[in-house]
Write a structure and sequence with these properties.
Helices cover 27% and strands 39% of the residues. With 158 residues, the chain is α+β, with helices and mostly antiparallel strands. β3 and β4 form a beta hairpin.
């Protein structure tokens, strides 16, 4: 009985893994995108370099993403199937971040190194995501980067 349960649990875990990969991001070409998304990307990428395009299911809905380089910094824009912008992630200088979030980011960095800051806007709300490389040699996290997100007032987000 125990062996059957373990085997069934193993099969269930494999199915969940396959399902997770099926919902993961997939690189696509412009011609594979809905016409409305193609038009929106053409409009939003004027003066930018398109680094990549992808589609993925987020919260049960198909979204399309354009990875851009604008004025030497990264900007990713997510669209729904109708070409409406549903999210923007854009690299920003720390000095441009509101004081509350900037102070929280600087505190979170501590002895680490700030790799980049992105303004992440979804549903009209902007948060600030800091990618931080941890210092040291002996810690399991040392030398690895992590992302921490703060609201404009400095409270942890997500």
């Amino acid at each position: 009985m125990g062996t059957r349960f373990i085997a069934a649990a193993g099969v269930a875990a494999m199915l969940l893994t396959v399902t997770a990969f099926a919902d993961s991001e997939k690189k696509v070409t412009m011609h594979e995108l809905p016409a409305a998304v193609q038009q929106a990307i053409a409009q939003q990428s004027k003066g930018a370099t398109v680094r990549g395009l992808s589609r993925e299911i987020e919260n049960g809905k198909m979204t399309y993403e354009a990875e851009l380089t604008v004025n030497n910094h990264g900007k990713d824009i997510s669209f729904d199937a109708a070409g409406k912008i549903v999210g923007v992630e854009e690299e920003v200088p720390l000095a441009s971040v509101p004081q509350g979030a900037r102070a929280a980011i600087q505190k979170a960095v501590g002895a680490g190194k700030l790799q980049k800051v992105e303004a992440v806007t979804e549903n009209g709300v902007t948060a600030y995501e800091a990618t931080i490389v941890r210092p040291g040699k002996s810690s399991e996290r040392a030398g690895k980067s992590s992302e921490t997100t703060f609201s404009a007032d400095g409270a942890r987000a997500k």
